[in-house]
Amino acid sequence: MATIRDVARAAGVSVATVSHVINGTRPVAPETAARVRRTMKALDYHPNAVAQSLRTRKTHAIGAVVSDITNPFFATLVRGAEDAAIEAGYSLIVCNSDESPEKEDRYVRLLRRRRMDGLLISPVGDGSSKAVRELPEWKVPFVFIDRRAAGIDADAVLSDNVDGAYQATKHLIERGHQRIGIILGIKGATTTEERLVGYRKALEEARIPVREDLIAYGGYRTIGGMEWTERFLAAPVPPTAIFSTNNLMTVGVLKALARHRIRIPNEMAVISFDDLDLGELFQPPLTAITQNPYEIGKVAMRILLSRFAGEEGREEIRVPVKLNVRRST
Predict the structure, then answer these.
(1) Which tens digits make up the pLDDT trace of 218-274?
(2) Residue 143 forms beta bridges with which residues?
(3) CA count, 13 A, side-chain hemisphere, 2
(4) Do 195 and 160 meet the contact criterion of CB atoms below 8 Å apart?
(5) Of 15-19, 184-188, 226-230, which range is least confident?
(6) Domains (ranges, CATH) in the chain?
(7) Is 179 exposed, middle or buried (0-12, 13-18, 19+ CB in 10 A)?
(8) pTM for the whole thing?
């Protein structure tokens, strides 16, 4: 394996010159720099990233901890962040907390040990894991994505959850529904709490009583959507519409309704917060609140990069959502 000394010897320059070419720490004549790079390529020399990070205190790597990488929403969000990172010369290291505080704690600490330059994080629940609570003490920039941790003043890029849930519930009310079952995610998560606010706001505005027996928590999982749909159907007076507040739970809702041969929307209207890629291909096509996860990831990365550049302040950006009315309502 070639060393920096081998490169210097073959290129006819000093070790210091090779180091300056690699790290950009001092101007090097263009023809000399080009010769050094050709020599590095010919010898298949790759700088030691760990040693570089110790010298420069920069790894040019950013960590991202998302709560469920199997959810297409988060996969698209990560893609937006990655594209913005690569454009700026950074790599993105992605960890999946799987909605587990223990995994979240482990991965945040791992990324800290690996000396990430910054962090994007979608906290589990209300962000009460010890590692998340310690983030402000880390002295490394971080941005909350999709959700934020309660009580931590930090940059955040989120969907307009209250408005999206309000639009969805109001749409169902305008379709004549009054018994609207809502399946929320994890108690304490800001997405859950904000979508509940929007749901309540639309009902109260229409003078429809908020019924606690129509408010459920499916944990942002397909199985949660299935189980609560089964419970709604088994109720003495079932709802006439179900509002599922994430795409995985919506899949569970549709599976349960199909199992019982419930016709949509004739016997049960369905609306989803977060569109499914194949939503238009369902029969009937699915009415949904469409988010923009790619934009969330891209904007969050841009904020993080601005903090690297020394820009100060705190931003909370709400990315707009849109009601797409199809035929499931």
Answers:
(1) 999 999 999 999 999 999 999 999 999 999 999 999 999 999 999 999 999 999 998
(2) 120, 155
(3) 16
(4) no
(5) 15-19
(6) 4-47 (1.10.260.40), 60-158+293-319 (3.40.50.2300), 161-292 (3.40.50.2300)
(7) middle
(8) 0.82
